[in-house]
Design brief:
With 197 residues, this protein is mostly helical. It contains eight helices and no strands.
Amino acid sequence: MPEDHKQIPSVWARPPKERQQPLLTRESIVAEAVRLLDEEGADNLSMRRLGSRLGAGATSLYRHVANKDELLELALDAVYGELPLPDTGEWRSTVTEVSRALRATILRHPWLAAELAEAGLAYLGPNVLRQSEFMLGVMEDAGFPPGEADQAVTTVMAYVVGVSSSEAAWLSHGRAQRAERAGVDRAAVAGGRAGGP
């Protein structure tokens, strides 16, 4: 049969082609951004680097997220979604539990402290609002007038973020030094093999 008249099988007889790239969603982009931030820090976050990790071009990400600042805002709010809303029945123990959970979250995500310090409450996503409203409710239920409840929550959260920021920075510095030493050790071992006796 001539090349021009080659029979094309029916569309129903051909298996569908699999997507070369995974389906991108805002949630998948934010989840990978949080992993990148945890592993490499905010200084190493870029749309190009994130796109590479997702197997997509940076331009594909811009369909879901306008820019790096918006991505950080979404990542911060996603991490705030990890925080519990405990109901201990007693305001002091609830505030203590939330404070410990916030500290643990900052230590798990060391970049979070710097973003919170830089942005303050500029990031008012749904999870940040949920946490703030919960804490205000706890204080108001304990009998604090609204203004004092707000001041108490702000003071406690500022203290926890401040102390945890220093701790997270210290841990990050230690990790960076260990990684640097490991790189030097690997280079020394490789150099020893190459130029050794």
